[in-house]
Design brief:
Blueprint: E1 17-21, H1 35-45, E2 51-56, H2 59-62, H3 67-76, H4 81-86, E3 88-91, H5 98-102, H6 107-119, H7 130-140, H8 146-154, H9 164-168, E4 174-178, H10 184-194, E5 199-206
Parallel strand pairs: 1-2, 1-4, 2-3, 4-5
Helix pairs in contact: 6-10
């Protein structure tokens, strides 16, 4: 048996809200840690944390694991019933901003665009009017390159504002872990930045 590594030594977790992103069975081959290492750390840290939130790709959004089966999986991997019962589970879905990520668009530009959409109640980038594009470019002319505008405007795909952002808006003092670091975790980071929500990351549990 692999000896359990002592993670996060010396980190102050008091009052923090931990958000776990997609640490679920469908992605276990991508993990850089064993599930029991994560769950045992949660068992020890639970008393210090203000809240634990499990964001996952589930049955309602992608036809993956149900919330109940996700809880069973965590319990099977040694997470205590107290932690499971006291945690929040949210089936988030994915690919809200993937066109920007897959195209290599600068993260700051993506954040600016998502923030603009959110603040102007635009849920789908394909609904932009000529006037909205003009307003966006006036605000970000100095920072957002013309290429970004063309990329987003001509995209056959779209950028959409997920319900996840309203969910995340309620929480502060955040710590992120999970993955994939350039995929779903990055989307959560972009959403938090667009909401002007500061956060920390725990690299030991990022895959």
């Amino acid at each position: 048996m692999i000896k359990l590594k002592h993670f996060l030594l010396g980190q102050n977790l008091s009052g923090k809200t931990l958000i776990s992103v997609d640490i679920q069975p469908e992605y276990i081959k991508s993990f850089s840690f064993r599930p029991y290492q994560f769950t045992n750390w949660l068992n020890k840290s639970y008393i210090e944390l203000n809240q634990i939130i499990f964001l996952y790709n589930g049955a309602d959004t992608l036809g993956m694991i149900s919330e109940q089966n996700y809880k069973y999986w965590l319990l099977e991997n040694e997470l205590s019933e107290e932690v499971v019962d006291g945690s929040i589970f949210y089936d988030k879905g994915y690919a809200f901003f993937r066109h920007c990520l897959d195209s290599g668009l600068n993260d700051d530009i993506t954040v600016n665009f998502v923030r603009f959409m959110y603040e102007n109640d635009i849920t789908d980038s394909r609904d932009f009017t000529r006037d909205m594009w003009a307003k966006y470019l006036r605000l970000h002319r100095k920072t957002d390159k013309k290429e970004a505008y063309e990329l987003l405007k001509q995209s056959g795909d779209c950028v959409n504002i997920p319900d996840l952002m309203e969910f995340l808006k309620k929480y502060n003092n955040l710590i992120l872990c999970g993955g994939g670091k350039n995929e779903c975790l990055k989307e959560v980071e972009i959403a938090l930045k667009a909401l002007n929500k500061p956060y920390q990351t725990y690299n030991d549990f990022i895959y």
